[in-house]
Amino acid sequence: MKTLDRSISRLISLLERRNPEGIEELKGLYCKCGRAHVIGITGPPGAGKSCLVAALVREIRRRGKTVGVLAVDPSSPFSDGAILGDRARMTEFSGDNGVFIRSFSARGASGGLAPVINDAVDVLDAFGKEVIIVETVGVGQVEMDIAKIAHTVVLTLVPGYGDSLQAMKAGILEIGDILVVNKSDQPGADGAVNDLSFEMPVTYGGKEFQCANIKADQWGVPIAKVSALKGDGVEDLVTVIFEHLMFITERNIFTGICQKRRSRQFLDILTQQVRDRFLETLKTDRDLQKWINKIENLKLDPYSASEQVVDLVEKARILADNGTTPRNNR
Amino acid sequence: MKTLDRSISRLISLLERRNPEGIEELKGLYCKCGRAHVIGITGPPGAGKSCLVAALVREIRRRGKTVGVLAVDPSSPFSDGAILGDRARMTEFSGDNGVFIRSFSARGASGGLAPVINDAVDVLDAFGKEVIIVETVGVGQVEMDIAKIAHTVVLTLVPGYGDSLQAMKAGILEIGDILVVNKSDQPGADGAVNDLSFEMPVTYGGKEFQCANIKADQWGVPIAKVSALKGDGVEDLVTVIFEHLMFITERNIFTGICQKRRSRQFLDILTQQVRDRFLETLKTDRDLQKWINKIENLKLDPYSASEQVVDLVEKARILADNGTTPRNNR
């Protein structure tokens, strides 16, 4: 492994385990953050996302930019041959100092993957990666959170989802800044593009694309036809991705996304820490077992018990606020 | 829809939205809980879980027991034809008063699906369903949590996962009380069963099964070959499931699982409520915006900011504990 990659990898591993030394190291890196363009690649299983990511990395490297890839794979304990094959395909970049690749499994990640991915994005950003690609499977809650990390969200679909697409359109259209119909060589690709088109065509980089919808910021969501495997349409897709970056940078949306991500991250960390400390306190509390016993013996239901405990804590807080809370530090 | 089903469905919908009236109604139902046998069906996408669940419901109904099915589908915004088809297959039970079916999407469920599923299991239990089947996709963190709700976990696999199975064995074997190799008519089914066999065969209901491992409670995990589509092996599988119920009931493990689930549920609700109240307090706190501004302007990193806030809260707590905490209610 390349030397710089080894430092990045070591730090991310520390942060995955919420290691205090790792967090201290990260604190010193925030001042270097805020420059990278974060691209989220999402879509259903089987849409060829890993293959698309490999094609994107190839094209972005051709344009001279450095890339970091964070692949989030919640189903990884069951990773089958196809997924392993896609990962193997990534070894084509193993000799390239400008590419860093790392996979994450949702398994065992307490508190969800969002905090870990946030940290990993910051690490790659601080270490100078110009483009960071976050690849996620599906659009469950975890994946939605991860999509919020990205400046540009690319939603990847394949021909043949026609009927259900029709039904889910409203939900799907919200997610992406760019829609990709992958496997464009398969029958039904043009039909899928047509199914998704609801607005007048848009032109980016001198090329016309059909348009799915107009976002609140007036960005017209283009539908790019791509065969990631053959490389068809990938150049145009990267052009569109960078056009989106330009669009959001010129309108100060880029900075807005970074700031929103930062404050959301702060609230995430804060609630996580409050939760951890609260659970720690509870564990050492001799009274807690009494509550649990009552619940296990069905003398008290969990909702009523919880309300009673929270009320007790709340009362303690209110008493503290009436005079003794230290507010001078704020 | 059947009248009883409508009441159940209404209450579950209220609980999904954390509606206070729904929670009040649920509180009154806990006394009727603790009788249902909860079966978890988990496994990778494409293992034919929905089809297996339909076959199980058919066989369990043939034996005269009432059934509730809770299908958790985190990828549902992208549900394709196959999944919709499986759901449609469930309409075969729409005229049967002894079957209740409900699907959940992970989308939009704040705080994960585990709380909602826990509540739904309690509702079905209280309304007298004798068997409750919880079907989940994959084994991410959410799914692992849901597996903890079940008394009997059935892990569903298909032939052709050979290589990766080999690699993941340790992890996979922990999860299931019963392994199913589905699509037993496909080539490689016997090979898959052999790959998973690590112990001497076990006999349940007069039939011999190959054995994956021996659990801590001395239950030998059988490997059942099933073709859910054709119905082959389903009768034996249901026999094994009920043998497992007998095994854990005789050894008082059943009660233990119920009690553990209850106390885990209590801690989940408690931390959720602490988190919600804390966030509520923060939102009305004029000082919070100052912290967020500092973070957005990169004057403070989110970890340091979070630590400082938690320390402030902690100090308030300690001051409160030194004399003024009301402890008499406990």
UniProtKB/TrEMBL annotation, chains A, B:
InterPro entries the record matches: GTPase/Isobutyryl-CoA_mutase, GTPase_ArgK, P-loop_NTPase
Keyword set, alphabetical order: Chaperone, GTP-binding, Hydrolase, Kinase, Nucleotide-binding, Transferase
Domain of life: Bacteria
GO MF: GTP binding; GTPase activity; kinase activity
Organism: Geobacter metallireducens (strain ATCC 53774 / DSM 7210 / GS-15)
Pfam families (alphabetical): MeaB (PF03308)
Family: Belongs to the SIMIBI class G3E GTPase family. ArgK/MeaB subfamily.
Protein name (database record): Protein kinase, ArgK family, putative
